[in-house]
Automatic annotation (TrEMBL):
Protein family per UniProt: Belongs to the ABC transporter superfamily.
Keyword Glycosyltransferase: no
GO MF annotation, one: ATP binding
Protein name (Swiss-Prot/TrEMBL): ABC-2 type transport system ATP-binding protein
Residues in ABC transporter domain copies: 5-234
Length: 312
């Protein structure tokens, strides 16, 4: 099955000379949740806005559902729902009216049942007759999501959708995202809450300085680039590590009560067995041990800083 979003050799250079996107190639499959991560100014929003036809690319092609987003703009855009970062709604409009109007913009007939379903999914139905100006910031964010879903898109872009919103909305959002994915909708999101990407995404892409530096299945990414830490809780505190253990690059924890050993999960041998043997030879005993896997956030920080081999 061809990807629902196909981006080939995409570049964007602004009049100022800023090279916002550099030869981006990306294919996103139908029904997946794809998380696009990158620091501020990396090009996340520019990439989304270019796919949605808001920003004109300098070169390259974009297809959504097989439709070129320049030569067949209406068909491509019809497949896309966009939740932008900024709150851009008419303050005097009522919730029901503004969501229904968004559906009409795409040439679709009225469907009160669908609008009602969307509003109920986002806990907005009780506010359907309220004017936008009467809503809290979190409720206004919900309205943006409802507007993006009004025309039943097949691809939903969420640009920092939960930034600065309450925990309840965040939970509602992710429940809705899971339901949409189960219905075959493709969800592409940018987020600063990397733990959300870790929980929700099927695949992760990392963008840095306008370039996609990595696209990987989330589980495989954490397996390949993740490291593990072995923490040994000592029977007696140490003032310093003995010289005989210098080759392990160990870290002595607070108060000398624990030793932390970081190892690469991809190596054939972790070195743990040899370490435990050498600890016993040095007369160092421990009462307990535990391991911790690198989080997606730690991997992301390493990537954007260029500390891993995955970055160019």
């Amino acid at each position: 099955m061809p990807p629902i979003v196909s981006i080939e050799n995409l570049s964007k250079v602004y009049a100022s000379g800023l090279h916002a996107l550099k030869d981006v190639n990306l294919a996103i499959d139908k029904g997946e949740i794809f998380a696009l991560l990158g620091p501020n100014g990396a090009g996340k929003s520019t990439l989304i806005n270019t796919v949605c036809g808001i920003v004109t690319p300098s070169s390259g092609t974009i297809r959504v559902g097989g439709h070129d987003n320049r030569s067949d703009y209406r068909a491509a855009r019809r497949m896309i729902g966009l939740v932008p970062q900024e709150l851009t709604t008419d303050a005097f409009e009522k919730v029901w009216d503004t969501v229904s109007f968004s559906r009409g913009l795409f040439g679709l007939g009225k469907n009160p049942d669908h609008i009602e379903r969307v509003l109920k999914d986002l806990s907005l139905y009780e506010k359907r007759d309220n004017r936008i100006m009467q809503l809290s910031g979190g409720m206004k964010r919900r309205v943006l999501i409802a507007k993006a879903l009004a025309h039943e898109p097949q691809v939903l872009f969420l640009d920092e959708p939960t930034a600065g919103v309450d925990v309840e909305l965040r939970q509602d959002m992710w429940r809705l995202v899971r339901r949409l994915r189960d219905q075959g909708v493709t969800v592409i999101l940018t987020t600063h809450y990397i733990e959300e990407a870790e929980e929700m995404a099927d695949r992760v892409g990392v963008i840095r300085k306008g370039e996609i530096i990595l696209v990987e299945d989330k589980v495989e990414l954490m397996r390949k680039l993740g490291k593990k830490q072995l923490t040994l809780h000592l029977a007696e505190p140490l003032a310093a590590l003995p010289e005989s253990l210098a080759g392990y690059a160990l870290h002595l924890g607070p108060g000398g009560r624990e030793i932390v050993y970081t190892y690469d999960t991809q190596r054939e041998r972790t070195g743990i067995t040899r370490l435990l043997t050498d600890l016993a030879a040095a007369g160092i005993g421990f009462t307990d041990l535990d391991t911790q896997q690198s989080s997606l956030e730690e991997i992301f920080v390493d990537l954007v800083r260029g500390h891993t081999g995955a970055a160019p």
